[in-house]
Amino acid sequence: MSNPLYVINVEAAIYREDKYLIIRRSEKEEHAPGVLSLVGGKVEEKIAENNVLENSLKREILEEVGIEVSNAFHYIESNSFVSDKGYMVVNIGFLCKYESGEPKCVSKDEVSEVHWMSYDEILSNPKAPSWLKASLKKAESVRLRVEKTI
């Protein structure tokens, strides 16, 4: 990427029944190596497309953990931070329902572990960073609202 104004990042709180898919980021990652995280990644520079956030997130999920999620994406939050390389990152989080596939570390350079964890397990895990816990609290609130409407 050649000196962008912003890097756009998307991430997914993927749920299956009462558990969320959590990854441990590879130690090779530039940003937050080795920490527990949601699945996600950068929106790639390419030609204009519709549903760029959703398509980017589905691609990242497949590339990183090898699973499919439903097409119903539920907005959780947006925030920004400065990356370790000094780029301003705009991060957009979505709630996604697991659909198919067995989660695994497809990209060892990006993901070192994959776990299905309950909401309470994540919140009580000392290795879960504060931003993950904050995002999960919002995701759980959205999930409970979505589940009520189904």
TrEMBL record:
Family annotation (SUPFAM superfamilies): Nudix
Pfam families: NUDIX
Domain Nudix hydrolase: 5-139
PANTHER family linked to this entry: ADP-RIBOSE PYROPHOSPHATASE (PTHR43736), DIHYDRONEOPTERIN TRIPHOSPHATE DIPHOSPHATASE (PTHR43736:SF1)
Family: Belongs to the Nudix hydrolase family.
Name of the protein: NADH pyrophosphatase
Organism, scientific name: Clostridium fungisolvens
